Prior knowledge:
Blueprint: H1 7-21, H2 25-38, H3 43-55, H4 59-72, H5 77-89, H6 93-106, H7 111-124, H8 127-140, H9 145-157, H10 161-173, H11 185-201, H12 205-214, H13 222-235, H14 239-252, H15 257-266, H16 278-294, H17 300-303, H18 305-308, H19 311-328, H20 333-337, H21 346-364, H22 377-392, H23 396-409, H24 414-427, H25 430-443, H26 448-460, H27 464-471, H28 480-486, H29 490-503, H30 506-526, H31 530-537, H32 540-551, H33 557-575, H34 592-619, H35 641-644, H36 649-663, H37 668-680, H38 684-698, H39 702-716, H40 724-736, H41 748-758
Helix pairs in contact: 1-2, 1-3, 2-3, 3-4, 3-5, 4-5, 5-6, 6-7, 7-8, 8-9, 9-10, 10-11, 11-12, 11-13, 12-13, 13-14, 14-15, 19-21, 21-22, 22-23, 22-24, 23-24, 24-25, 25-26, 26-27, 26-29, 29-30, 29-33, 30-33, 33-36, 33-37, 36-37, 37-38, 37-39, 38-39, 39-41
Amino acid sequence: MGASLPPKEANLFKLIVKSYETKQYKKGLKAADAILKKFPDHGETLSMKGLTLNCMDRKTEAYELVRLGVKNDVKSHVCWHVYGLLYRSDRDYREAIKCYRIALRIDPENIEILRDLSLLQAQMRDLTGFVETRQQLLTLKPNHRMNWIGFAVAHHLNSHGAKAIEILEAYEGTLEDDYPPDNERCEHGEMLLYKISLLEECGFLERAIEELHKKEQKIVDKLTYKEQEVSLLVKLGRLEEGASIYKALLTMNPDNYRYYEGLQKCFGLYSEIGKYSSDEIDRLDALYTSLSQQYTWSSAVKRIPLDFLQGDNFREAAVNYIKPLLTKGVPSLFSDISSLYDHPGKADILEQLILELEHSIRTTGRYPDRTEKEPPSTLLWTLFFLAQHYDRRGQYDVALSKINEAIQHTPTVIDLYSVKSRILKHAGDLVAAASLADEARCMDLADRYINSESVKRMLQADQVALAEKTAVLFTKDGDQHNNLHDMQCMWYELASGESYFRQGDIGRALKKFLAVEKHYADITEDQFDFHSYCLRKMTLHAYVEMLKFQDRLHSHAYFHKAAAGAIRCYLKLSDSPLNAPAEEEDDTSKTPSLKKKMKKQRKAERAKKEAEEKNEESSASGISKSGKRHVKPVDPDPYGEKLLKTEDPLSEATKYLQLLQKNSPDSLETHLLSFEVNMRKPKILLALQAVKQLLRLNAENPDSHRCLIKFFHKMGSMSAPVTDAEKLVWTVLEAERPSISQLLEKTLSEANKIFLGKHEGIIDLT
């Protein structure tokens, strides 16, 4: 670096690099200018100056200088490396990899460039290239632990687990017998556990258990050691040993449901679907009775039997579980046992026993078969439970009467108002639900959860302005939009996007949905720093799990909602393209109320622009010691008007549809949206494919039936095919129709009548 410069300037160049690494950008800039005064065409200095300016948010100048630097010294690996770093900072990883590869052709053994390239390959999941680069790093620096581990992890990610094990064993062969020293015991223990998990993954179970026992003294994390050991023992069929370890683990944490599940497997009493024979239920009951005597203060050991017990045994266990929690006043009791409502008959038993408890407390002040009196609060929590019970069963009038009685009993309990708000929401009175939620919020202004619940209810009632004012109470500097976006508050953005969509404000709705999509892009980027950190700190198992999580990130429910919302917005735009407000100003067809609304909107925009100008003026002086400006980001399109001007809404919708099809292929909504998009394009065969997927997932769903009838009705009304392509499509349709059982030897009208008859009283025909 800086080799072509005289000694004084070469030292200045080293200062530029050091200033960049220590984030003293102004100092680095000063040194670069001093060199360029004498050597204005020195490529490496121009590149480093550009890299420094990039860190000071002067990107245009940065790219100009770096490109000039590359042009002036095209054979310098430094210039190409810096060019790659510039692209990397802008998340253009493919271009950055190209620059790194050119730099490596010039200097094939540069450790820095190889390391940076390996990070980008891991980020982009170029696993073959990642293995090659890690092998080069290991060859160049075989005495560096991180290079051995990185090479092993690269092979593991590339589905070569056995090769990864060989590399880790070769690394262990380079270590002395007394390794590790005290300050590296944790990291070495993590590496050993990772190696054993690899042996398990590859099916070498005997080797894995042998290695685990052999290296016990060197593994610091004893809990993970025991969990790994019991996992191997169960897979090897050594169930008695596994059961004893699970009992030891339960002594450490008697509320861990996974340990109980594992113990059941050891006794041959575990079912994935939760169905057991009467003999298995008796054995399970005996097991948990024994465990409850051993772990008397465990909640899980009392709760789990409610899932498998039936009839009178279930009733007895439920009473024993519920009564202490009602006396104690646990608000989450109903949430705890709500899953039992999916079990046939259990909801009726719960209703009967709770009503008996309520009656007994009202008349005698105590539980049946008890002599001691219950505190007055027990009746309150019993009513609270009953209100939620009737709400779950759809009996909203009874639920409201119970919760009103509870509020009359003790008007100061906030949870009562929150539950009443939820009941009103389920009953369809969204405005009243929002009002109740706000009343609950006002009872404790310091509770963020209640504030968030109130905001959610307001958005469901389309009270967006009020929701924003309420949300701002828990954001910094009172700037709700930027702060909620910076905090990646996705539930808020999704709820407000849905609200705007219902109100017909497609621009703002689309903006909110795309904001959520950006959060997922940011989450993907956030993994970048961990590629080097996890190898350095040896958190290898967690690292591999994180990468697997990132690979299925877009299957998360929030992303699905955001992408589906964006597609619906683009479909609306496709059906009725909207013009920007400025272009509609002279449109005489507008109603007075709409004109008034748009006038207010433009006034607000002007005020915002003035505020932005003032902000920019004040921020000009807000420069840190490093020379980086602290300019508050300004939203150039607060109402989503630019998003409305997209030339091809269906093309934009297709981008998100492809993500849904890749990551949520078993969602009915994915194929419903696919049908709507492809019918509009029109892509007939893709629409048919969507219909077939809908029928595969749920043929009895009204939306699936609607799409089926709509598709073939549309095809029936089309003119005869003319081109070869049209004739081919027609041939496919004729071949596929007999394979759809709903239309077999039936007209569309007959198929529709059969479907309506089958679901009479269920489907609302209005």
